[in-house]
Design a protein that fits this description.
39% of the residues lie in helices and 21% in strands. The strands form 2 sheets. It has a 4-stranded antiparallel β-sheet with strand order 1-6-2-5. The chain has a two-stranded antiparallel ribbon with strand order 3-4. The longest helix is centred in the last third of the chain and has 15 residues.
Length: 181
Amino acid sequence: MFDICVDHLKIADRSNDIKDKPGIYVWFYNFKNLQEIFKKGNEKNFYSKLENLINILPELTGTVYSTFDIEYNLDFQPSISFKNLNQIKKEVLNEFLSFLEILELPLYVGRSQNLKERYIQHLGDYKRDSFERDIFASRMVKYKIEIEDLKFCGKYIDNKELINDLEYLLNRVIKPIGGKR
């Protein structure tokens, strides 16, 4: 589906892999990186990143209406407490990480007339010491998500109207948690 995907961003600047073309892009949480940390046995770093990830998952609240005009209030909270994360069996965590890598977690959906320039701009945003306004990088820093925890994927599309409509629809359907609310 994507024309380009770039991960492990701190290891090397991969902007040369991205073309100066318009399109749609998505920042994903890079579960492959989390899985590598787990496999290397760096438990403190692994559990810290997993706890941060659980912290950013939105609380689901809302009202459900049935076809019989009955109203239900829905209030869902994740059932895993941070205190017992390290008590989960390693084989369960390994399978869990395998599923997460397949499912992927979109954090941000954007559009640009030049994907390479926009990618470089996002990298620059991450290098700031402070943020004057609420942007994607500031939200990720707030959630303690480092740049190497992310993956950038882009689809080249040479149709401005299509790009605008796709970005609008994707943001409303996916509701990426790192997007502006």
